[in-house]
Specification:
The structure is a homodimer of 279-residue chains. Chain A has 10 helices and 10 strands. Helices cover 43% and strands 22% of the residues of chain A. The first copy, chain A, is of the alpha+beta class and 279 residues long. A 6-stranded antiparallel beta sheet of chain A has the order 1-2-9-4-7-10. Chain A has a 4-stranded antiparallel beta sheet with strand order 3-8-5-6, with no helix packed on it. Chain A is globular, with a radius of gyration of 23 Å. Chain A has 2 domains: 165 residues, Jelly Rolls; 102 residues, Homeodomain-like (Arc Repressor Mutant, subunit A, Orthogonal Bundle). In chain A, helix 2 packs antiparallel against helix 3. At the A-B interface, strand 1, strand 2, strand 3, helix 1 and helix 3 of A face strand 1, strand 2, strand 3, helix 1 and helix 3 of B.
Chain lengths: 279, 279
């Protein structure tokens, strides 16, 4: 790919009845030192570094060096700065989304404000896809925009997947896998997490810290969550009575089951099954 | 695909720090007439009909027949019912998402509450993808879940794209294309939409109605939106001064430009350019 031949080019298109828009572009930032400083952007952007050197300062003040193959987010509500080595020939692709997608992705843990920088390396394939997306936004008919939006999402998902694969090679990943598998099953019985850690030669307190840092929630809450996931699954099967599900999942009573299910999902088990509001 | 060999199977997995989860499954509903009645689901589901006959009643009371190759939504906040011909061997795949994705998709016009039923026909490829997704949810490690979520979205996007292609074959599509192209350009000059309609042999009032129904907004608002999109694009190019952009886009003054930009995006043109809050 001949970066010198690529030209500065950006397109934006609004979708839907609200004020949401998507954007995509290639930007060259030559001779500039400050790109964004203490910026607090109202939109959600993924920036992919094609060339150049720079630095990203996140909302906590942590500094992340940037070079070819890195990507970073500008996130609505999170102050950040990014600086460029002026003569490094900075060239970036970007994909822009509205606030709502950020809200959804953040809630789902797909995007985390404490991980604003990732690395996938330089990928000619992804570059081609973004280039195609830029030209799609330029020429898209109105009825092609929902498809174009989904295409932006699918490129975004490539970043998530590739960066994910990297993170799973980390030293703690295997421990985390085993712990999740232990915590995510055998709901009929009470678990002894301390004994489990001991057996595997892990310090309990250190384990808890790593678990929380990596998954964003505590081991105990994780277990409840998997139990609720299993409840959802069983509720979709009309062969199980709600009482039976409570027993199967180790609740001391259907009332305890109902209360916890409601606390986590906002609705009762029956309401989840029938789709009816039971206030 | 031998539907008789497929078994009832559903999986749910929570993601992130909130209480959002995704689900996928195959459901067989035999001998049942009422599936959901006046349901008001708290989640967002896409249901794809693999076999059987039925009917969907949307929040306005409009009835939509359902058969193989149709899909429909259960949308949070929108009451609906769906009925099944008991002996039709009803078999469905479903993909479930949380509320946040629905909010984002609805705001973007990707999902519209006034189009809760669509048709893509029976697709063995999509069936395979959903089947793979079901088994992925069953066995996914925690660090695979963001990727799994994106995969659900990409399957969802196939429905959107295929159903879109269908809608663009409608009789009004060509008129809409021409109108969008007319309204979406030449911002320096005032347009005469009535004359444009006349020239093309379209009744002005009828045109406005169809435009509003198909795009969800009026022709005038559509034009402003495209103008704001163009403003975003030009603001990303540091070679343009904000005054120049105002002139280029036909605003009578930079103040008028600023005011309209702010009304649509929530921020000033300068703030969009720099990412800084300028209150």
């Amino acid at each position: 790919m001949d970066l010198d031949r690529l030209k500065h080019e950006t397109y934006y298109r609004s979708l839907g009845g609200g004020n949401e828009r998507i954007g995509a572009g290639l930007m060259k930032k030559i001779g500039r030192r400050v790109d964004f400083e203490n910026a607090y952007p109202p939109y959600f952007v993924l920036v992919y570094v094609l060339r150049g050197e720079g630095e990203y300062v996140d909302f906590k003040g942590t500094r992340h060096p940037l070079s070819v193959g890195d990507f970073f987010y500008r996130m609505p509500g999170f102050i950040h700065s990014n600086y460029i080595v002026p003569e490094s020939g900075w060239t970036e692709y970007f994909l822009e989304f509205g606030r709502n997608i950020f809200t959804a992705f953040r809630e789902l843990g797909v995007v985390r404000e404490d991980r604003p920088v990732g690395r996938i390396g330089f990928s000619a394939l992804i570059c081609e896809e973004i280039a195609a997306q830029i030209s799609l936004l330029r020429r898209a008919e109105e009825d092609e925009l929902p498809g174009a939006f989904m295409k932006s999402l699918s490129i975004f998902s490539e970043f998530i997947k590739r960066a994910d694969m990297k993170s799973t090679q980390s030293a703690d990943a295997e421990m985390l896998r085993q712990a999740c598998s232990y915590l995510g099953g055998d709901f009929k019985n009470k678990l002894n997490l301390e004994a489990f850690c001991l057996k595997n030669g892990w310090g309990y307190e250190k384990f808890r810290k790593i678990f929380q840092a990596k998954t964003g929630i505590s081991p105990g809450k994780y277990r409840v969550r998997r139990r609720i996931d299993m409840a959802c699954q069983m509720l979709k099967n009309p062969n199980y009575k709600i009482n039976e599900i409570a027993v199967e999942l180790g609740y001391s009573s259907p009332y305890e089951f109902s209360a916890q299910f409601k606390r986590f999902t906002g609705i009762s088990p029956l309401s989840f099954r029938t789709g009816k509001n039971d206030k």
